[in-house]
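Objective 1.3, modelling of assemblies. Example input:
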Amino acid sequence: MNVETAKTNKPRKNAFVMFIHKMGSPPWFYNFTGKFIPWFWAIFIVLTVWGLYLGLVKAPADYLQGESFRILYIHVPAAWMSLLIYISMAIMAFIALVWRIRIVEILAMTSAPIGAAFTIVTLAAGSLWGRPTWGTYWVWDARLTSELVLLFIYLGIIGLYNAIDEPRKAARAACLLALVGAVNLPIIHYSVKWWNTLHQGSSISLMGGSSIDTSMLWPLLIMAVATKFYYGANLLTRARVKLLEQDIRKAWVREVLKEKNG
Amino acid sequence: MSGQAVNASLSRAFFALVRRDILLAFRRRTELLFPVIFLMVVVSLFPLGIGPGPQLLARIAPGVIWIAALLATVISLDALFRSDFEDGTLEQFVISGHPLTLIALAKILSHWLVAGLPIVLLSPLLALWMNLPGESLGVMILTLAIGTPILSLIGSIGVGLTISLKRGGQLLSLLVFPLYVPILIIATAAVMAASDSLPYTQFLGLLTAGLITSVTLAPFAAAAALKISLS
Amino acid sequence: MSHTPFIIGAYSIGAIVLLWCAFAPLLRKKSITRDIRRLVQVEERSRDTNT
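Predicted structure (tokens):
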């Protein structure tokens, strides 16, 4: 069936379709993405240094929370990334399940550990922010609780992917789980939010009524962009390593490594 | 074959499958009792661990009974497709040409009848132990009656995904517990509202909406999961 | 209460987790290339003994 559709589409095959086809070939993907990774890391480092300089040194202390609000510049970008990576993983999981493209399967699955890492950072930073703000390290605040459930879902996906031996079957099973999680996450988020108001838990948000000044907003935005480059670089690195690992007995892997050594 | 005949043969296959599973379950009657005994043991641990104060027990009763129901469901879930997977019956079903979604739905229904319904029937005793106020007992039973089928439905997806693993049990609990969070929240909220003589019908409505959604979506996801596991 | 230790703590946990997350695949790649090199050596040796 795929062959047929490819034939009928032939006259309309443009540069974008060609690009997609090329991305599907492991050696091409390996070499093509290899060129971008150093640049992504460089942009990430420059933006992070700049953003942290603005946020930790330049920005004035918050008049309500004092210095502790500076945790915002890591907590909030990490929280955004934990969700954004899940969305990107779910979209790739859908593509992987429908069109069975191996590279997309790998990209979806290598997203999960990065998302889990950002979720851990969000939880740790949020809890360290909570100590000076709420007086305790952990409150069952709606946002922290949702992040905790999100972490469990990430861990489930990673666990399922690693538990099944056959790599493509593992990827397809974990992709399906990622999609089931994507359907459930909004429900979980709203039910947890509502549960929090129901039990009159601490409804004090970490932002606690502070309006964001532009001098506080810029470092936040810069950090948000920087973390996206971190994701890009880390994702491509992980996907390339996964390709090497899966294709360990294929000829292209040896050629690629020989080129690098020789 | 006309459309009606196909429908008739599908529903016949569906009910034949449910009947077969229940007969098989009743052949192993002691195994049938394990989740029920498990539920009773878990609930009885709470007064021992927390203390027998009736007010405190009444306060935590909805949460305790519901969490025990979640645990009991998860330990019984593994049996949902296990024996059929191991002896190759599941592959036979796929080859037979009957839609896998329907087969999954039949297996889920029989799982609920065997493992979920006993929880609902046992809940009055558990409520008594936990000193749950009498007026909220009916709501407790209702939430369990609506909620435990959702647990079986969502759980079936997890079972489908982990069935090819030799020891998938622990992984299965990691996969399904996060997905159970909204049900736990809504169901316990309904019972607590009833205990405080507050309106609770909206929560039952939400639970019912959850049941309808999961009946329409979960069998497809479970069938897709089984297909991946069988490939 | 001084907030500085909490800020330092949050950023250092973030740095450790993200650095580990970034370097883990590189370590994995190292071990894979080692495996591949060993595989190639074994194949060459068996080819030598066969001829």
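The CA atoms of residues 20 and 42 of chain C lie 33 Å apart.
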